[in-house]
Amino acid sequence: MYEYLKGTIVSIKPDYIVLENNGIGYLILTPYPYQYKQEEAVQIFIEQIVRESELTLYGFKNLEDKQLFNLLNRVSGIGPRSALAIMASEDVSGLAAAVDAGDIKYLMKFPGIGKKTASQIVLDLQGKMAIYQDDSLETADQMKSQPASGSKEFDESLQALQALGYTQREIDKISPKLKQTQLNKVDEYVKEGLRLLLKK
After folding, report:
1. What is the pLDDT of residue 71?
2. What sequence ranges are listed for the domain Helix-hairpin-helix DNA-binding motif class (predicted)?
3. How far apart are CA 6 and CA 151, in angstroms?
4. In sequence order, what E strands does the chain have?
5. Positive or negative CA dihedral for 166, 63, 72, 98?
6. Which residues contact 4 (CB under 8 A, 6 or more apart)?
7. Which residue ranges does the chain devote to CATH 1.10.150.20?
8. CATH architecture type of domain 66-132
9. Kind of pairing, strands 16-21 and 24-29?
10. pLDDT: is 154 or 26 the higher one?
């Protein structure tokens, strides 16, 4: 069992990163791959999940995110992939508030979450997410900077949203508005795209 890994980011894909440590490349699924930078030296908190013949590593920037992943993953009807998709919105305080308020409609906006699973989230996690209520993560609005120089970042952000479980139809609905935003990084596009998807 791993607690964390230290190494260098050698590859960033829509749904995972590759972390090199002592000549070994670890494929790590993470809720937000584009928050990392190529060739960046990092410490990533790891959750290892073994299912039948599959061994998968899930990675997080801090211990709080790892704990949130484990909370979500224990809810009946939510698997590791769904937990990552929920966490990718980075609106942890909004998620915590929705759980405590029993806001089923808000929770159903996440990919793969129906009414039954949303109700189960409330049932299992209500009163357990107080530490996330005052989360102060940066929003996409706060991160807007220079206009994008091309469409590569935009295209990669759409791939990342699809990797999180959103359908092509859902992505197509927000694409025109997302393209109009003046952003210059993939992670900024993804954050804004998630914000638009959760507003739908």
Report:
1. 93
2. 70-89, 105-124
3. 32
4. 4-12, 16-21, 24-29, 41-51, 54-60
5. negative
6. 43, 44, 45, 46
7. 66-132
8. Orthogonal Bundle (1.10)
9. antiparallel
10. 26
